[in-house]
Specification:
2 copies of one chain form a homodimer. Helix content of chain A is 46%, strand content 16%. Chain A is an alpha/beta fold. Chain A folds into 3 domains: 150 residues, Nitrogenase molybdenum iron protein domain (Rossmann fold); 182 residues, Nitrogenase molybdenum iron protein domain (Rossmann fold, 3-Layer(aba) Sandwich); 33 residues, no CATH class. In chain A, helix 2 crosses helix 3, helix 11 packs across helix 12 and helix 17 packs antiparallel against helix 18.
């Protein structure tokens, strides 16, 4: 059974705070292994990539080549059902349109003292996208990571993907084609991260690495951070559904399970003001579980990580939501916009009874790479800004430097940085 | 002598790449010590803070209280020279005005399928600013870190600062007052980072920690990352000056030294197209060094890390600049804007002969917390966006879900995520 809390319980605050701070992830400590692989790739380049791929993926890229060829992608696309390809194209178009609206504008102004100040945005030159192999290879994630980079204007958009036993994933390659990736390499694990960070004879280094991966990939990304940029390391998925009694319990139940089915460590939480409705949702979850293919994962998540929180009034929900700062938030209530306006911390909000979270995973347009584990308090989902950076500009002439320079000299001297002070003073004929 | 390279040399490319990849920083590995302190603060709270402060800062905060009081700040402000206070106020005003221009706007649109999509920005609730003690306590850095948080709308803006022997730094406290910090605590080191991340009886936890610190502080910030947000860990400062022969060599020389004086590991590089001018700059550096108070630091930086790069034409400069991706870039040339337009990677650009980098350190308005060690390839200086986060919104009704839902069902089924598919299908009366 999922945890059940009632805001009227005398120990509610303590038990709710326990839920807020519960740790669901136990990331294996594989830093040493990842470091050894990274060092080896930095030292031996392609030869190391080939060795690790032989060992971990059980095929010889010296025979196939490290690069996935256009012909291989063509063949993969041809094998994918037309309906699926069209769905990927619709998703790509909608993701592209939403992210295009995020493109920021710089500015340049001349202020009252005659100082010309500016801020401009430029794209990162080259980005690497890690795509996991096996069951965690989601074509939708290829779109969500690659399209914002393309919209931002990143020129080199490089995908690395392990191909266990040399088998290519048709859906992933089709998504890569649809998302406009410019290079694809059949290499995965920490060795792929090393190739992207350090470069090899075949693979030129990139400036930033994004995308999900297993514990080795996460550890490798942490270690190359600084040399290249990385995205945040995502934890298990979460959904929080705020629902009143006017919902169909079966709809709410399947929404909870749509995150629970990702991972036994995923978390689904229901907040409602109606105990009988909560009971109906719990019963409906059990009904769905009988017929879901991924029932064992979803059931373990729901029973171990799930929670049902009963409040006196849905007015109490926003404060609880902000404490939990969920990755996904569904507001299945009569006035979802009014409630959303009272909530500060959530990765993505789904408004109303006809916006199940899954529509955002694929085709709505916003990104599905979102902050987990309460990090929505201080971070954001992936977006165009993650593939751009800012440069500020300052232009002075003699007059404007004379206007603001003396204050800078005063502060530099107060800080004991005389060369700083002098670099301004010489231009003001002060020395 | 600084390194001297000429683009006409046959080994130029190799030696330039060596410069690009030279490591200047040797961060001590103090992760274990930092972890022990963090764990202790998490476990014992204020008692641990008091113990470490007694040991490392040689005074007893159980007597003074951990909080720096308003009366103490008043007294500090009163002791600062009025000219210095006015300079801090001018700087704060200009920094505030520049950062206010960075405030982003969200959007909400209804697309052709009737799906309502939005993106909104909210401020982080609480931010901690670490301010170093001793000689690295720069009031200008207090302004540069605290003002963007205030502009962003962060409600709790908390400063921690070590006060060795219990001595308060009047300039830092005055800057804190001018920057509008809301809480000040006399605690530093990894223990202060622990207090900000985990909270203690006295200090409530924050959501993000920014600001420079020593190796212990940096290691502690790395370790609490995830629980709270952190800014990037800055390396030694850098300046790259592109200058033609029409400059006063003494001006360019002092600009190079204005970064060199920060740290023996700082780096100052001159790119010019005139060998005789380069010689005059090198001679002028030596002249300045004779009279600079921080001559030993600046001389060590210049002689060990400095470089003079001779190009055939300044047309060749932008490509070299982009490879180095400098923190600070001065373009002391006849047409600085035209050259800036050709450069993609730099933290901040100073345009023309009257814009020494030091004016940007204090009063120009843009932030002086900037990406070092080539990270300007993928990251930005501190700004208002670092204190905000995005939430996306999706609203569908039955009709718009019917328009885009089937594609999502197709993709969810292709990925084997049946609960995802079903959460849409139930709403479309498909099951």
């Amino acid at each position: 059974m999922p945890l059940r809390l009632d805001i009227r319980d005398p120990d509610f605050v303590a038990r709710f705070e326990e839920l807020v701070h519960s740790k669901r992830e136990t990331e294996a400590d594989v830093g040493d292994v990842a470091k050894a692989i990274l060092d080896d790739v930095a030292a031996r380049g392609d030869a190391a990539l080939i060795d690790y791929t032989r060992r971990f993926d059980r095929f010889d890229p010296a025979e196939t080549g490290l690069a996935i060829t256009d012909a291989e992608i063509d063949a993969a696309v041809a094998r994918v059902a037309p309906e699926t390809r069209k769905a990927l194209e619709l998703a790509a178009e909608r993701i592209g349109a939403f992210h295009a609206r995020q493109m920021p504008e710089g500015f340049e102004v001349v202020d009252g003292e005659g100082v010309r100040l500016g801020l401009r945005w430029t794209a990162i030159d080259a980005v690497g996208l890690y795509v996991p192999g096996g069951t965690a290879a989601y074509p939708s994630s290829v779109l969500m990571n690659a399209i914002p980079a393309r919209v931002a204007g990143v020129q080199r958009r490089v995908m690395v993907v392990p191909t266990p036993d040399g088998v290519l994933n048709d859906l992933v390659l089709t998504a890569a084609r649809v998302a406009g990736l410019t290079e694809l390499w059949r290499v995965g694990g920490a060795q792929a991260v090393g190739a992207l960070a350090y470069g090899t004879e075949s693979i030129r280094p990139v400036d930033k690495i994004v995308g999900p991966g297993n514990a080795y990939v996460a550890a490798a990304k942490r270690q190359v951070f600084g040399r290249v940029g990385i995205d945040s390391i995502a934890g298990p998925s979460e959904i929080l559904v705020v629902a009143d009694a006017d919902n169909d319990p079966a709809w709410i139940a399947i929404d909870l399970l749509s995150q629970a089915e990702h991972d036994a460590a995923a978390q689904a939480i229901l907040v409602t003001d109606d105990a009988a409705f909560a009971d109906r949702v719990v019963a409906a979850v059990d009904d769905h579980l009988v017929t879901l293919p991924r029932t064992s994962i979803a059931a373990e998540s729901w029973h171990r990580q799930g929670a049902v929180i009963l409040v006196r009034s849905l007015d109490e929900a926003p404060a609880l939501v902000d404490r939990l700062a969920p990755e996904h938030l569904e507001l299945a209530v009569a006035e979802p916009d009014a409630m959303a306006a009272r909530i500060r911390h959530a990765g993505a909000i789904f408004l109303g009874r006809f916006a199940p979270e899954a529509v955002g995973d694929y085709v709505a347009g916003p990104n599905h790479v979102l902050p987990t584990a309460r990090t929505a308090r201080f971070s954001s989902g992936l977006g165009v800004l993650d593939f751009l950076k800012r440069t500020t500009t300052v232009a002075c002439d003699a007059a404007s430097l004379a206007a603001i320079g003396p204050a800078a000299i005063t502060l530099a001297e107060a800080e004991g940085l005389d060369a700083h002070a002098r670099s301004i003073a010489v231009r003001l004929n002060r020395r």
